[in-house]
Design a protein that fits this description.
The chain is of the alpha/beta class and 306 residues long. It is built from twelve helices and nine strands. The protein folds into two domains: 138 residues, Rossmann fold, CATH 3.40.50; 150 residues, Aspartate/ornithine carbamoyltransferase (Rossmann fold). Bound molecules: phosphoric acid mono(formamide)ester and norvaline.
Length: 306
């Protein structure tokens, strides 16, 4: 069997992604009913974190334990990666000891190099370019609150960052329209946008972009690794805060998402993220269920029925 990786949403077909979302909803039900479901007994996930994390680490680690397996946390500080051992050598060694590896890193090429020599599945736990695991949770959350996202309109407000790039991929895979409201100079990946121009377009004015939207999404203005740009970005993104006025321009039953962590008063007003249209806590919880579905898919070959 050829090994499958999950570096971007494009590593799975639209059909596979849809069945993964359904499986995530099913796994959530199984857990809420208190049923034991341990198809990954004896399996181990290696987790390499070169950047900070709360949700990604806890959801993968808890998910592996709930599925009957275990997870090992590695950071550059306490592994040989931090002392210059080549990525490829690390990948070859870990492949022989664990059943899958999740990596949170900077350049997306690090994930690609790792995957190129790995004999076990590699999962992107966030790179500078993409954050596909978050999209699984976001799409699951939309399905649970509003049904199929196909044909809906999503507005991305803020930085054209890793989350925004993954939203472009999601627009293609899940068949929705994406409006991107970002200031000039902070656009998402140009190649990606060009390839998916039928599904994703830039509309600079966030109020105009929000008009009639079914889902409003934002993220921090300065991502991990861009901390020194915070002040400059605060100026560039003035006017890109998701406010109650912006939500009022969206559809009456629009919902709000944010991958978290959030900065209230910067990219989103407290009244919005803590208000009735916000589904951010369900969204965060769904990281657990969506990634359990992903782990089953990658480690067992396909979603398994209960
Ligand atoms: N949304 C997300 O990936 O959160 P963490 O950085 O806490 O993992
Ligand atoms: N764009 C953010 C997402 C954090 C989950 C970052 O990369 O820091």
């Amino acid at each position: 069997m050829t090994v499958r990786h999950f570096l971007t949403l494009h590593d799975l077909s639209a059909e596979e992604l849809l069945s993964l979302i359904q499986r995530a909803i099913e796994l959530k039900r199984i857990r809420k009913e208190g049923l034991l479901h341990e198809p990954l007994r004896g399996r181990v996930l290696g987790m390499i974190f070169e950047k900070s994390s709360t949700r990604t680490r806890v959801s993968f680690e808890a998910g592996m334990i709930q599925l009957g397996g275990g997870a090992i946390f590695l950071s550059p500080r306490d592994s040989q990666l931090g002392r210059g051992e080549p990525i490829e050598d690390t990948a070859r060694v870990l492949s022989r000891m664990v059943d899958a590896v999740m990596i949170r890193t900077f350049g997306h090429d690090i994930l690609e190099r790792f995957a190129a020599v790995s004999s076990v599945p590699i999962i992107n736990g966030l790179s500078d370019q993409f954050h596909p695991c978050q999209l699984l949770a976001d799409i699951q959350t939309y399905f649970e609150h509003r049904g199929d996202i196909r044909g809906r309109t999503v507005v991305w407000v803020g930085d054209g960052n890793n989350m925004c790039n993954s939203y472009i991929n999601a627009a293609e895979r899940f068949d929705f329209q994406l409006r991107i409201a970002c200031p000039e100079g902070y656009d998402p990946d140009a190649g990606l946008l060009a390839r998916h121009g039928d599904r994703a377009q830039i509309i600079r004015d966030p109020m105009q972009a929000a008009e009639g939207a079914d889902l409003v999404v934002t993220d921090v203005w300065a991502s991990m690794g861009q901390e020194e740009e915070q002040k400059r970005r605060e100026q560039a993104f003035a006017g890109y805060c998701v406010t109650p006025e912006m939500m009022a321009r969206a559809a009456d039953d629009a919902i709000f998402m944010h991958c978290l962590p959030a900065h209230r008063g910067e990219e989103v007003a407290a009244e919005v993220i803590d208000g009735p249209q916000s589904v951010v806590w369900d969204e965060a919880e769904n990281r657990l269920h969506a990634q359990k579905a992903l782990l089953e898919f990658l480690m067992l070959g396909a979603s398994t029925g209960e």
